[in-house]
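# step 3/5: fold
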Amino acid sequence: MLVTRTQRIGFSLYAGLVLLVFYFPLLCIIVASLSKRRFFSFPYPSEQITFKWYQDALNSPQIAEFFGISLRIAGLTAFFSVLIGFFAALAYARYRWRGRQTFQRLVLLPLFFPQSVLGLALLMWFNFLHITPAWWTAVIGHTVWITPITTLIISIQAYGLDDALEEAARDLGASRWQILRKITLPLLLPGMISATCFAVLLSWGNFALSLFTTGADSALPEWLYARMTTGYQPLVPAVGVLSVLGAMLLVIVLFTVVAWNQRRTRRLTAAPE
């Protein structure tokens, strides 16, 4: 199908409009974070541009503590959700057993709960067990909600695995642990890295679950919300921009690892000339 010059221009304008709608809020945050004025206004003279708020954010022990709490929650959530998702994906994507469909539905069920309702339910459950909410209870809450997502991502990769590779290794005398470590795990690694990326990003910016489950250990999204409603300063968008830059850096690193692993896999599996 031939595309005319007018159609190409129309598609380009449409794509540009979509990208503008997606990224315009982020642009507004960047503009607000560079202003000396307490309240957002645009345009403003060049004399009003300052990087003071970024310096304050980087030098603030309080913000560093919130970053550390959010980082611990996101890191542990990613670890546990990918670990559970890995074995859950193998359970219903690679094997046939009685109750498999029921297990699949139960694993994916938390995904359909509103996060606020799930957070309230977890808070009531912690209170019933006489557990004081803290940052580690937020890890439990985030893991419950994010594990179905990591399971879906890894299962897509697991459905595409060739059974002949594992059968060949088994015929050559490899144990189940050797097959898992040297064949299954490397082949599922791209899906696991993608699931890790999603888990970290979803946990890092999760406000609803954190609000109910962190207790006195407030995470970064809670601090941003509190400062937006009371005592707003351009420090708030500056912290938001730094958070987005950190998330983008994480995505770049993880996908670089995925690309490296794919090139390495192709070299190892390439047939000799």
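# step 4/5: annotate
The chain has eleven helices and no strands.
# step 5/5: archive (pending)
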